[in-house]
Amino acid sequence: MRFALTVFVLAAVAAATKPPPECAVCPKTLPPGVSEIAWTRVAADEDAGTMFCGYRGKERGNPKTLETFCSYYNNGTLIKNPGSLKACPKTVKVEKCKKQ
Known about the structure:
Oligomer: single chain
Shape: elongated
Number of helices: 1
Radius of gyration: 20 Å
Largest sheet: 4 strands, antiparallel
Helix content: 10-25%
Structural class: alpha+beta
Strand order of the largest sheet: 2-3-4-5
Signal peptide: 1-16
Keywords: Signal
Number of strands: 6
Strand content: 35-45%
Order of helices and strands: HEEEEEE
């Protein structure tokens, strides 16, 4: 019994001293890519160590709304994905994760 209590106390101390997890931070906007599109963030979702950042944009002279996304590992580096544009920054800042 004493051993189990000691293990429990040590586990609780280790959990309390563990630094809070960090998450990638989605930029509010993206720079124009190949064409001049004003991208605005419309979604951000952290899941299983990655951050999904969804964007909507309007291209000059095109009435249709365009959508794209960027995904990042929680260390702030871009996840290579053929569906994301060159406008996605290769790295973003990280900060303490916010509870969803």
